[in-house]
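Troubleshooting log. The previous structure file for this entry was overwritten by mistake, so regenerating from the original sequence record. Sequence copied from the archived sheet and checked twice against the printout by T.R.
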Amino acid sequence: MKTLIKILFLSFIICSCSNNDDSNNQNDSELILKEVSQLRESTSTSDFSFEKYHYREDGNPIRYEQFYENSTTNIRDTQRIYYNSDNSIDSIYIATSNFPGHVKYNYQNTELQSFDVLWFQLQPGTYSFTYNDNEIIMTFDSFYEFDNSFEQTKYTFNNSNYDLLISLVENKNNFTIKRDFTYDSNSNVTSIVESKYIADIDDYVIWRTKNFTYDDKINPYKNNTVSVPAILNNFGVQLFSFILQDNKISSNNILNITSNIPSSNTINVIEYEYEYNDLDYPISSVETVSNINNDNGSQDFYSTVVYKTYTYY
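Regenerated output below.
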């Protein structure tokens, strides 16, 4: 599932692309993200990536492209999205440098029941959903007959409309992790508490906390359902997005992420600085990653710096 989370991305639920209504009712001051270029520099290497987004006239995304390059690798990826007549997503075709793939969605009436993954960069199989008031359970069934592994994730929301994810419990082969979420008044995630289940004490033990602060400007990714890595977002489930893709689901732009693992001697800090246009959309950003020693409070030199520029339609 860790690989899946890195590749995929997720708001609930469902029967049509999550921003259809918003796109059709955009006012003149709303901008649609077109391109993002990124230069990442670390102490040992640097890489460049470029993202481009394509939409139908009604605002629904139809294609996402990414180009990635460093000293040893040159990769180009494309995702193409196909729709049913009711604007629900029918399928996505993924063309990557090494692993082409296909995702097919299955509905009952207008409710997403499952999706089939035929992509060997992930584990091929079917992800099925069951719904119960404010809870959704996703179960994975591998296409491989020899694969007897068990994967199931339970999502608990604040209401039966699935507006805000309150907790997520992921069980894979009897290894269980729980994530609890809190929010501010703009529905931005302000904290994630990750706990591991310990059978010997029959309870959860916190192993990491993440805290977030935000600006009061517009997040350009907010209504963009093809953000990278974005397949689960396109699945119509958008659940993992604010776990590893924090900046692509919040209403506002993240200023700081502080991660603390109690058993570790360091705190990881990610800080963001932005330049905005007259409509309060970012046009550039600088992201710095550093570590703080828990014992003496000293801060390491910046291990990674990421420069981004944003353009809009």
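The CA atoms of residues 169 and 178 lie 4 Å apart. Archived copy saved in two places this time.
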